[in-house]
Design a protein that fits this description.
Elements lengths: L5 E5 L1 H6 L2 H4 L2 H6 E4 H6 L6 H4 L3 E2 L3 H11 L20 H16 L6 E5 L3 H9 L3 E3 L1 H8 L12 E2 L16 E2 L8 E3 L6 E3 L6
Parallel strand pairs: 1-2, 1-4, 2-3, 4-5
Antiparallel strand pairs: 6-7, 8-9
Length: about 200
């Protein structure tokens, strides 16, 4: 992997999917950022002390952005965070860290792109809502294993499908095979599986 123009903010469900050797890889050590609250959730990991080297601290700036994120979440929407069920407490902070990183990057001439890595569709949707790129756990794992380019644009494409008519927009991210010249990819309404655009529909 030679493209170092990306920084990755990692969810706990991503850490769980990765092997310890992958979490110890040079690429992970250099490009992964783990929010403090995610580290708290991962405190049972045998390598948690090593993971602390990648901590993205909860700074006053992050807390300020967190207020922005939570302001976009309806009171009765428990998909991103459900305090009563003690679920998703780190998710808004994950997004706030990525936004903070991207805002800092935007001040640079050639700053990196900040990306949220998560298997949680509510997290993915909220990140896209704030203009943050998303990678699924499988996509990130493939990058670590060298089976996919760091930049998915070109050889492979990531599909962020948002239902614009639904105020609580959902997201699906799918990996598509390389498209030929003049060919584009679309998705079915039901399962969002990529299909060639010229495929007849019933």
């Amino acid at each position: 992997m030679t493209d170092y123009g990306y920084e990755y903010v990692i969810d706990n469900n991503t850490l769980t999917q990765l092997k310890r050797s992958q979490r110890a890889s040079e690429f992970f050590r250099e490009k992964a950022h783990i929010p403090s609250e995610v580290l708290h959730e991962a405190q049972g990991f045998p390598d948690v002390e090593d993971l602390r080297r990648n901590e993205y601290p909860t700074t006053p700036e992050v807390l300020s952005i967190l207020v922005e994120v939570m302001a976009t979440v309806p009171v009765n929407d428990t998909r991103l965070v459900d305090l009563y069920a003690n679920r998703g407490n780190a998710d808004p902070l994950l997004i706030a860290c990525a936004i903070g990183g991207q805002r800092g990057s935007d001040e640079l001439l050639f700053g990196p792109t900040w990306v949220v890595v998560s298997g949680d569709k509510a997290v993915q949707a909220k990140a896209v809502e704030f203009g943050i790129e998303v990678r699924t756990n499988d996509q990130f794992t493939e990058m670590l294993e060298g089976r996919a380019p760091v930049d998915l644009d070109g050889e492979r494409c990531q599909r962020n499908v948002i239902d614009a008519e639904d105020v609580d927009a959902g997201l699906e991210a799918e990996m598509a095979e390389p498209a030929c010249d003049g060919e584009r990819w679309t998705a079915t309404e039901d399962d969002m599986t990529p299909i060639p655009a010229d495929t007849p529909t019933s």
